[in-house]
Each structure stands twice: as C-alpha cells, then as structure tokens.
Design goal:
The protein has about 625 residues and is mainly beta.
Length: about 625
Amino acid sequence: MFYPSSGAAAPLCVRPCVLALALSAVFPGVQAQPLAETQSTTTVVTAARAPQSAQQLLADMSVIDRSTIEASGATGLADVLARLPGIQMVRNGGLGNTTSVMLRGADTAYTAVYIDGIRFSSQSGSGGPTWESIPLAMIDRIEVLRGPAAAIYGSDAIGGVVQIFTRRAEQGFTPSVSVGLGSNGTRRAQAGVSGVGGEDKAWDYALDIAGERSDGFDVRPSRNADRDGYKSLSGAARLGWRINDQHQLRASLLASDIDAGYDNSTRPGVDDRSLHRMHAAGMEWSAQWSERWSSVLALNASEDRYETTPTAYLSTTQLRGLSWQNQWRLGAQTFSATLERREDALQNAPVDRERAQNALALGYQWHAGKQHLQAQLRHDSDSEFGGKQTGSLAYGYDLTPQWRATAAAATAFRAPTLYQRFSNYGTASLTPENGRNLELGLRYRAQQNEFSATAYRNRVSDQVSYQAGARGCASAQGCYVSVAQAEYQGLTLAAATQALGVRWHGALDFNSAKDGATGLYLTRRARQFGTLGASRRIAGWQWGADVQWSARRFDDAANTKVLGGYALWNLSASKTLARDWKLLARLDNAFDKHYETAATYASEGRRFFVSLQWTPTP
C-alpha cells in the first residue's frame, strides 16, 4: 500500500463516519490536492534488493517520502512507522528511551534495518535495531517490507525489513533551513545543502545537520516526579561520482548522538541518562557491464554504542559488511546472484566476541502478461553454528488491469545474539530461531483509488527467550534458552480514495500474536489497531486530520496486567507563504489522551509543534 505524499502523513482510524462528516461540513465543494506520487511511477529496492517497479511488486510494502515525514510532525522514526499498516510501537517513556517496533506482531528483533544499504543492529541483549538512535531528521525516504525476507537479507528478517535512505541530490545547488518550536520546550533546527557539480554534472552531494532539544515530560510518575528531557545532534553526508554512463561510485555517512533522561528502574528517585551514539558508513560501486548484466559492489560498517550514567553501563556493537550483487535481465526474466559477508562484534563486559557469516543468495523474477513470479534461495554459513538455508516463493496473477491476487511462502531464521550466547546469562549452545510464513493478498488500484488485503500466518520455532531459574544455567538467576514457540497471524486492510472532496487513506489490522506453548497472547501487542487520515487543500492551505487507534494489550506473559486501548486525534496545517518559504503546524493527541504502551511508563500528552522551512528554488 503506497500512501500519498500530499496529505497528512499517518493514516489512522477510529470513528471514520464522524471524521468524514466533520471534514465534509467544514470543507464543502473544494477540490482536494491530487496525489503527488502513484504506484505506477514508484521504484522500490527493498523487495528484491534491487530497483523494481512498484507495478511488479508481489510483496506487502509501504513507502514514505520526505514530505510525508515533515507533515507528520513526528520526532522519532518509530512514531512515523507506527502510522503504517501492520506496525505497532512500544516506547519506555519519551524520545531517546528504549523503543520497540513490531511488524505484524513479530518481536522488534525480527526486523532487519538498512540505512542506505548498510546493515544496522545490536548484538546486546535480545538484539535488534535500536530504533531510538536512528535520527528521523536525516531521513529522506523509508521503504517498509512486511513479511519474512531472510532468503534475500539473511538473519533477522523474520518479521520484515525497513530500508532507510538519506537525501541524495537531484538538481542544482540547493540550500535548506528549518526551525521549529513546540510544547514541552521543544526546539529544533536543521540545515542542509545539496547539488550537482562538474562540467558534465558527474558529481552530486548532499550534506545535512540537525539539532533538537526538549525539556520533556515525566515519563515515569511512579518513580520520580520530574521532567525527563533529551537533546540530540545528527548529521548525514552523501557523495556520488558518475565515472561514465556505465560506472558510478557512491559514499554515505549517517551519525547521531542522543542524550535522554529516564528514571532508574530499581532505585526510586534516581535520574539516569542514556547516551546513545550511532554511525553507519558505506561505499558502493555500481556497474552496467552490458545491456543485460549489472552489478553493485558494496563495503560498509556501522556502530551502535549505548551508555548510561551515573548508573554505569556500556555496550558497543560493530557490524561490517561486504557484498557483490549481480543481476541479469533476459526479456521477461531477471536472474540475480549475491555473495555477501557479514561480521558482528560485541563489547559488553564481560563479553568481547566476534562472529562472521558468509552467504550466497540466488534470485529469479518473471513478469509476463498477467502472471508474476519471484523466487529466492539463500545459504548462510555462520562461524559459530554452521550452515542455514532459507527460501521464498511468491506468485501473482492479474485478475483484471486493476485487481491482482498474490500468494507467497517463505522460511526465515535469526541467529542468537552474542550476548545471548556468551554473557553471564548466555547459553553457548543456542541454535538459530526458525520461521515459516504463508500469506495471501488481494490488491486493487485504479486512478486515485487503492485497496489491499493481506492475510498471513508466521510460525517461529526454537525461539530464544530468557527464563528465570532455568536448569543448567551458569547464573542462578536464569539464562537464555531456545525452547519457546510463537505464532503470528492476522489480516491487514489498507485503502486510499477520493470521496466528499477529501483525500482519505487508512488501515485496519487484526493481529493474533500468541505463545505457541501456552496459547497466551504475547506482551504489548494489540489484537486490533488501525488508522484513518484525511486531507484537503483550501485557499493555499493543506489541512489534515488523522486518528490512531489501538485496542487493549497485555503487559505480562500471564495476560493478567491489562494496558488500556486508546485513540489519538491529530491535526495539521501547512502553507507555502512565499516562493521559498513554508509554514507547518501540528497538534497531536489533541484531546490529551493519557495512555501507556508499557506499564508505568507515561506517553506524551497533547503537544503542539510549528516549523518554518526555507528551500530556495534552483
């Protein structure tokens, strides 16, 4: 499902009839702004790890562009993702604190994250991407692939893949500046410059820097009555050189430093700071060897460093990667072959370990008339646990020019983290977690109308979990064991249309994430959640309204502690004041709803933010 870049960013849903009537009454007879991006003109890379027309897609995907991110008014990446179909977010307090993102109900560690093609994750604890450390201000575009993709990306992609792109220049010298103010003492500033240079425009560059500071709010009232603020500084750089029409070099760097306050969990009244630093750097060489054969050689590295003070704790994960992707096009067929090496290292006292994985991945695509086929096969060889094979097969049939039916099956795996194996609570003999997924899809698109329905079932076995007092543990407190099972199944509905002179877009999810052994629901996942958004243009202003809705969830494995459901209403307005100036204002959680995504951790109440952007036309 592709959301338009012209309206309010997050399609959220509750009481759609009330919202529809309200908007139609306020804005009678005014023409809505047309879609700025359509599926037919969209190119994505995440579904096949190579450029692919959205018309060829068999996967369940969403794409978010920069204008949508800006219109959302969100301060964190997870806040933007939580407004997409099939995604839930849990945060222990405010921005900069521990954040989880769950695709189709799967654990946060089951999502593989890439930044400009650079793998980013943590080997500490249960692992997974540290969402709170990725700076939203530097992101130009996001692609979200829902469903297993280990046959393309290897370990971790059991629930899906999130691919993040920083800005890349597409025209002449273009500076930009943005400043904003909001509730809770929030101040934000961002500046950047991009351009294309050289006599034959062979060079392109983009540089961005952003800073943000907020007094915050009391994220844990039961522990310490104070404000828990944050400050962050981030920067990004991309440089490209087109050697000739067949060869291009590209380098990228993203870095972030965030300092956030939180209340100590075990020592009431004690304020701690979480210091999170990350960077992701990479280089790639793209080559078009012939009309049919192209390749990409990439070298990259990333680091995730987490420290707390005055309570002393330090963990550093370093990832290094080398890949060589090749693609051959023969008429309606496309063949691919990828050689890849990944190295992981963790320093988290007393752990100081490394491991490596070598992989060969093969792919095949066929698009002919009404029929579409995509097959993937991958073998990973891990320096610790040996070899692992994964595969996927997807088929699509065009029932009409507007309707497409799809079916897919995939296997996936996730290697235990170095912490889970070698820490004081680790078990060195842990084996990989394994997933098996089946899904069916139905999609429709005609002009400005879109609809999709995706049903899925994903079963994970040999799941690694921490068990207190388990037998055979080195620690008397317990250790990680791989005996758990989980089942994730559900239905995702998404749609966008033009009605009553308003552009509508929304989604509704029915999700059942259960413990395979006990049949109890997994913690902090709602069984129903949804979104609905609407936008309209009047007298030069773009108006938007959206609502996020979530049913209740359980905060404990025994399903006895209930977290109440909630609905969050958000409003936005933007206007181009002059040729190069734009004003954006948002009011989020307009009715000041008090809710928790994790027990005892408060979420921010009503908040207002206004920004002024200057981007001169080249």
